[in-house]
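SECTION: protein entry
WANTED: fold as tokens:
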Amino acid sequence: MTISLFSFPSPPSLFANAMSIFNLLALITSGYMELIGKNKQYAKFCDNDTGSNKPKAKEKLKLPSRIGMLVFYTPSFLVGLASFTFFPHQDCRFLMVISVLTIHFFKRILEVLFVHKFTGSMMLKDAITIGLSYGVSTATMIYAQYLSQECPQPAFDLKYIGLVMFVIGITGNFYHHYILSSLRKKGDREYKIPKGGLFDVVICPHYMFEIVEFIGVCCICQTGCTFCFTLGTMFLLMGRSYATRKWYVSKFGCKFGKDVKALIPYLF
């Protein structure tokens, strides 16, 4: 079969296969919810929900944004870190997989601590939901990769192509996160239209490079589990970027460039 040219066979694990499908469907659903305006309540979208008649009760369910973001990424980082010692018989590809996943989440933690400037809060339930989702997805991808070590290798080895794409993606993602952080001076709480880098053509180039990064991870892994996660992540970030562009248009009106797309330059 053609798929065997590029991917390992499905692992002999009902759990890994079921979680792959569940992650895909959950991420696609989340992307659709972002698309129709039912956004996860963090960053600029945290205060969009005005339907509650109990603001004080709602306030108790919020976290400072910096703490919430650490809840997002720390479980997955710890999963990746533990995998270096928890799984025996690590081949080169498996070491690459757990390395890039651990590096990805460690980089996000460092950005939360030292790069991003936070002024708001986020819903506690969203922080926990996203953190658990990332952690379980990371563990599932690593477990599926571990099981694949005994399977026949794909005919086309994409792991080094994937490594190049991962480096390009993580570098571009960091660069545009740095641009976003530089927009705010000390004590500044207002959002501004970002400029520089690829912000002149898309409002979410950091999401675009994150997709490149995870396509790289997918090429390193070459498993159906990681393909499902990457495809789902693409749908999620498409929905989030569409909602982000809509938010900027509603806030800045004609000041926001009509030719600036959401995610893909000149297309979407």
Remarks:
- The radius of gyration is 19 Å.
- Residues 48-58 have pLDDT under 50 and may be disordered.
- The first helix runs from residue 14 to 35.
- Residues 173 and 206 are 4 Å apart (CA to CA).
